[in-house]
Structure formats: C-alpha cells, structure tokens
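[Automated response] Your request has been received and processed.

Submitted sequence:
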Amino acid sequence: METRVLRSAEDSSSEYHLIHKHLVGPRTVGRLLLHYTELTQSQSIERMYEAGWAAAEAALVADSTLTENSRLEMLEMANDSWQCAQDICHERTLDNSTPCHDRALRIETSRATLPVFSTMVQGTFTTPVRKAYHATLLDIAGRSANLLEHSVENRGSHIGNYKGLCAEQLGILALSREVTGRLVAMPSLARSDSGTHYPRETHDIQVLSHHRGVRRSITPVEIKFSRSPDRYNAPVLNARRHLGVSSALSAVELTRLYEKDFHQPELMTDADHIKLAMIGLISDYRRKQMSRTGPTQPSATPPVAAA
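Generated structure:
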C-alpha cells in the first residue's frame, strides 16, 4: 500500500473523483485503500459513501498478489463505511433537519452488492446468491417506490430524486430477476454519477459480465427519462422506451409488478422484453468497443452473453 502523509477527507475526495469513472486495474488497489483511510476521517455521508466504494472496488479488482482474506477484509471495510453513512442519514431524518431518505436507500442498494462481491472473491457465486441479491434489491426498491408515491401524493419537493432512484433500481432489477446467466447489474461507483469530471463517462449503473463468478467485463449504463443525449460514452437506457416508465407513478407501478413477479413469475409478461432491451444495448456497446480496437488488437473484454 502507498505510504504518504494523510490528506484531509475533502482533498482525498477531490482526487478520488479525478480517477476515471470505470473500474481501475490491480495496480491502483493501494491508491484506493489510501483514499479509504483518508475519506473515513470525515464522518459525513458523502465521504463515507465514497470510502465504501473505494474499499469495495479495491477488493473487486485486486489480483492474486493479495489473499482472499485480505480482499474479504476490504469488503468488511466497505460495509462498515456504508453502515456509518446509513446511520448518519437515519439520525438526520429523526432530527428532521435534513431528511435524506433517497441517499439512505442509495447507500443500502450499494450495500446489497457486498454478498455478490464476496462470493466472487471466493469463487462461489451461485444461484442462491443471485436469488438473495434480487430479494434484497426488491425490498429496497419497494421502499423507494413507497417514498416516491407518497411524495407525488403530497406534492413533495423530492419527487425527482425518488423518481431517478426508482429508475436506476428498476434497471438493476431487470437483470437481477434472472437467477441464472452471466450478467449482474449494480449501482455505479461513487465517482461515476457526477459530471464534474469526465462528463462523457458518467453513468448510473454498471453491468458485470462474469463466467462462473470470474469477472469478464463491466459495462456502464446511463438511465434517462428524457430524450437520450449523445454526450454519453455509455449506452443510454431510456426509461420511457426501454422500461415503459413515462411518469413517477408508472415507476411505482412497475416496481409493484416486480414485487408480484417475485412470488408469481408468470404474471409479469413484460420482464423478458425489458431484459432483452438491456442486453441489446449492452451488446451493441460491446461490439462498438471491440470494433474500435481494430482487427489486430482484439478487445480484452469478450462479447456479452445473454443473461
């Protein structure tokens, strides 16, 4: 691990956001762990959330020079940071000074990935793990939908935040619903949804392609309700066209369908259409990425296999 004088959490955060918005390579693990140490000096929601993703990313990209136990310890560090961030959100909500329900649910959505990461590190990513991941995400998405519905009914000021959160969770649910396959969707890294640096790299979720739990590639996906702009490098999932979500209440309705689908899969006939739309976007993106490398320089990441 890199050794140098610790900077303030704010300075560390500024540098963390200067890293490109995709997963780094194994040589950057030490830098990520240093960011974790510096960011956890600040007991703020934002810094603890960033620290959690720094530790989780380090565990995910580390190579065989680090032991399995070391990588699992990094995931414990991520869990501790995210738990702290959630606790701060809870305290603020109780005080009613600065309610942050949407941030708390975003953090919880990130924490839901930890069992997936852990089993990938251990090489034991199985169908039961996928089922548990989907069930956890569905519980979180249901509570997000409740808040969105309540905000719409009461003309609250956070409708946009809840609507965006629901759209991202619906995109993740479209793939987590599949208990087999090679694609797993999850939230983007803490530095990936900000357009301050490298705005063309901005994205909301990331889709991991794996083979028997071994990571093969990561595809960024941006989610938009409005007409999809051309400025994103990532494929854009249009909530209206691909998810059938045209309003806040339709996002709530689709979440309710996923909840019913969990117990009676035959009731949700649109689920496969949504999944195939996402796979189509991802496959097109991967083909374009591979074509840019030229025939003599094949891409290091393989084409996407259907979920």
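Summary generated for your ticket: The longest helix spans residues 68-95. The two ends are 37 Å apart (CA to CA).
If you did not submit this request, please reply to this message.
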